[in-house]
Amino acid sequence: MNSYNEFATIYDELMNDFDYKRWADYIESIFEFYHKKPNKILEMACGTGNLTYQLAKRTYNLVAFDLSSEMLTKAYEKLYRFKNVKLLNQDMTSFELNKKFDSIISICDSINYILDIKDLFCTFTNVYNHLEEDGIFIFDINSFYKLEKIIGNNIFIEDRDDVFYTWQNEFNCYNNICSFYLTFFINKDDRYYRFDEEHEERAYNVEEITDILYKIGFKKIEYFDCFTFNKINPDTERINFIAIK
Hints:
The protein has about 240 residues and is of the alpha/beta class.
């Protein structure tokens, strides 16, 4: 079995408690807070297109990309009816689209999947180069606290109607990388099929992120406890960043 293909097929079921409408509402509240009225939006690491769908219904002109062709196949099933959406197979660290956008967005801790600081610099540089002057970059990360203390070195088990999975994690304090080892059992025709996934996220502190953004040239950078405009605290689990070119 093609494990990543299998993961793409169950991704939406696993994320069914993730409120993408709330995400779209929050993004629009950020636009309003910073007095932005974007028309052209680029979404990086769009996955199966759930946020893309919410934004497409609000008539933005969207380009969305992901590294996984399997995830993009699922996104296409949701989005092919929209004339204001274009899907691409691209990598955050190396994309080049020969056009600029009013806003660039990345959600669901996609930035944490960039494990090398040099690749993070490349990603943020790509964003800067694809933004219009005064454009706004919105993204979130899993906080250092969450990856080290909440997820790291823990085991989670979930039993759903047709999916059972275990999620074992290890946090490496030498390189700040959290490794996720997932084993899935999927019910198909009253038989369970197993596949395994391994993912890694790097824990970044706020200073690392802001330092890179300022070095690249972003002129205003702020960050909040996600879904709010409140200051972060030591127990914040998801941090939302806003960077203005």
